Amino acid sequence: MSDYTLDELRVVMRESVGVDESVDLSGDIADVTFSDLGYDSLAVLELASQVQRAVGVPIADELALEAPSPGAFVACVNQALTEAGS
């Protein structure tokens, strides 16, 4: 199974969770905090739920909420994928 990418997360952020019009997701958002992108904890949990459905592996709420940025969130998803494949 291939790694989950930041570009795949951007799609979910745009289509499923939404984004404030003033936020540009096409830039380098890997290390920008979710709060700076306008995402609160509920939005991050919804993001995790949507990604879980897309990749077919569970992502613990605690793990998703500990991810401060999209880059860290992608790392959590890839960790879950690795654990599911072992």
UniProtKB/TrEMBL annotation:
Query: Keyword annotations for this protein?
Result: Phosphopantetheine, Phosphoprotein
Alphabetical GO biological process terms = antibiotic biosynthetic process
The Carrier domain covers: 3-81
Task: Provide the GO MF annotations for this entry.
Answer: phosphopantetheine binding
Q: Does the keyword Transmembrane apply?
A: no
Q: Does the keyword Phosphoprotein apply?
A: yes
Q: Which domain of life is it from?
A: Bacteria
- InterPro entries named among the record's database cross-references: ACP-like_sf (IPR036736), PKS_PP-bd (IPR020806), PP-bd_ACP (IPR009081), Ppantetheine_attach_site (IPR006162)
User: What is the name of the protein in this document?
Assistant: Acyl carrier protein
Source organism of the structure: Streptomyces auratus AGR0001
